[in-house]
Amino acid sequence: TGLLALKARIDNMAQSIRYLTLSLHSHGIQDEETNKTIYREFEHLNAKLLSENQVLHEEIQNLTYIESAEIHRIEVVQQTKLTTLGSEIATQITKLNNTILRLSDYKIRLVGGDSNSGRVEVLYFGQWGTVCDDRFDNNDAKVVCRMLGKATTNAVAYGSNLAHFGRGTGPIYFQNLECTGSEPNLFSCPHNVLGYQNCHHHEDAGVHCG
């Protein structure tokens, strides 16, 4: 718009300069007065051309600034929308997990250790699976022990890709658990989408309750 109008004005002046140049060549030195007139017009147009170029440069800078500001505004708006959407999705996932928790017959057990320790396994919709040790810490161990009805004060998590109590089989239900230690069960803790994990059984988590 503004730039196109300026470009058109500059193009018109450039055409005028070309016309004057051709006129100058056609008259040569045979008509001194005409040549002087053409030179004066030529200089006048050159001065206008320089002025318009400066205006064009300033317009470009201004538009660049406006464009950058607009892009930043759009980015902020989109980021806000994505954050809101992410929050809504997280809320819906929590609601879905809670619904599934109410509907499913889930159990938890420790395998490969003793009565107070072992690999954590969860029975979910009729199938036993394990817990990934990514981010698995003592707070998560406390929740496991609470689910088992055992002492939580000195609960200890076992992880670090060692499968301390051996490797399990079947699905890996939980990954990136972030329990605070006060939750009633693992389903109430923040975690990745249930059952869709980038984890392997050498990362099966274990706990010791006490």
UniProtKB/TrEMBL annotation:
Keywords: Disulfide bond, Glycoprotein. The keyword Hydrolase does not apply. Gene3D superfamilies: SRCR-like domain. Signal peptide: none annotated. Disulfide bonds join C179-C189. It comes from the Eukaryota. Residues 108-210 form the SRCR domain. PROSITE patterns: SRCR_1, SRCR_2. Coiled coil: none annotated. One of its GO terms (cellular component) is membrane. InterPro entries: SRCR, SRCR-like_dom_sf. This is SRCR domain-containing protein. It comes from Magallana gigas. The lineage of its organism: Eukaryota, Metazoa, Spiralia, Lophotrochozoa, Mollusca.
